[in-house]
Write a structure and sequence with these properties.
Two copies of one chain form a homodimer. Chain A is of the alpha/beta class. Chain A has two domains: 90 residues, Ribosomal protein L30/S12 (60s Ribosomal Protein L30, Chain: A); 142 residues, Alpha/beta knot (3-Layer(aba) Sandwich). Chain A is built from nine helices and twelve strands. In chain A, the strands form two sheets. In chain A, strands 8-7-6-11-9-12-10 form a seven-stranded parallel β-sheet. Chain A has a five-stranded mixed β-sheet with strand order 1-4-3-5-2. Chain A is elongated, with a radius of gyration of 20 Å. The interface between A and B is medium-sized, with 29 and 29 residues.
């Protein structure tokens, strides 16, 4: 085990760059934090570059580089208020494009809240979705808050970045219906209509799905809510729609 | 309009105490922040003690006390990173106990995450629930993060604090079924079973609903999820259950 005691150490400086989207894009690396997530990543065979910990007593079935750091150095690297003293530097995974476009897909159009994106990925895994697709303008998947909210689901479920127009076309080409969500020009969600395969398209917290995508869908639906309520949280709406639409 | 320029002003010191649960309990007051929430509160006839703003140009149909403060004073009072320069001091509302225990109730057992509680209140309003009941050990309703996540739903939907054992009894006394959520000794949620009236009981993020409550329910259910997924977020689960169980 190597020990790092200075916040000016070159490795620490390099890892700190992973706090920004730019740093993550340049290196293809990202950080995960907390013993539970690190164990999940190891169990899921995530490609881990290094584990950084304050806890000398910590042992795990991990054959790669482990760096012991002082609490001060850990604080420098940590992005949570109460660091659990363990961080892993992971390589981003490039998921293989799907062979067919059948299954259950969740398409995210310009979602901004990291907690929403993370929770949707967690929910999509639980609901046995095939993949999540982040369209342009959606918050960076490797943002620490997204990762925390996925609760490890990110390691198990394919998440793609892509052009949603192309994804919609690809689904429709193989007769996978694409269900958009919209408050106008849409049908109320019917509990009795379920699909074997479908793609669900949800949109930005304030603006919803952009019109050019809604025009391409097979159908657009909304979840009926009572008048005094403004809207549902997009994560909640996605959970309800996935549950309701799946056969 | 009165102007306050010092963070040492007695009113400012008194309002700052509302950042803590103790301060809110002693005074029966709480703070809301941001123009949108303040407008919602005024529209919903919330009893507002004072409005505090940095914006002299701001005008609203509000007849009570308005205090103009400097940005430095606002920063002292604000609990968000990007204050929108507007805070209201509101009186807690004591909702009248329901006459009957029919309708849709959401019972929260020891929920800890403010975002979850706020989102559940927002979802419950949207789903036309009758009320939300916070059992002992649930995070304080007037926590700023809870209020922010409710998106104003708090002003429209009765939210009670109460003994969940008693609430379960009261529902069962009038034949309102109480549906608990549990991962063991529970049935998978059946999309085809719906209720005119019911109470839904959800529990702590890590531990779920406590056994002594689960023993009293009419029935306990779980949402079937795939093996690799650990669990659903409690807010998502509540959304799915409310949607699925309601007739």
């Amino acid at each position: 085990m190597k020990t790092i005691e200075s916040t000016k150490n070159e490795r620490i400086k390099a890892w700190k760059k992973l706090h920004t989207k730019k740093g993550r894009e340049q290196s293809g690396l990202f950080l995960i934090e907390g013993e539970h997530l690190v164990e999940e990543a190891i169990a899921a065979n995530v490609d881990i570059d290094a584990i950084i910990t304050t806890r000398e007593e910590w042992r795990m079935s991990f054959s790669g580089d482990v760096f012991y750091v002082t609490p001060v150095v850990m604080k420098e690297l940590s992005q949570t208020e109460s660091s659990q003293g363990m961080i892993a530097v992971c390589k981003k995974k490039n998921w293989k494009q799907p062979d067919s476009f059948s299954g259950t897909y969740v398409l995210l159009d310009r979602l901004q809240d990291p907690g929403n994106v993370g929770t949707i990925i967690r929910t999509a895994l639980a609901m046995n979705a095939t993949a999540v697709v982040c369209g342009k303008g959606t918050v960076d998947l490797y943002n620490d808050k997204v990762i925390r909210s996925t609760q490890g689901a990110l390691f198990h479920l394919p998440v793609y970045h892509g052009d949603l127009h192309q994804w919609i076309d690809a689904c429709k080409d193989v007769n996978t219906p694409v269900i958009g969500t919209a408050l106008t020009n849409a049908k109320p969600l019917d509990k009795n209509v379920t699909y074997e395969s479908f793609a669900l398209l949800v949109g930005n917290e304030g603006e919803g799905v952009q019109p050019s995508l809604l025009e391409k869908t097979t159908e657009n639906v909304y979840i009926p809510i009572q008048e005094r309520a403004e809207s549902l949280n997009v994560g909640i709406a996605t959970g309800i729609l996935l549950f309701s639409l799946q056969r």
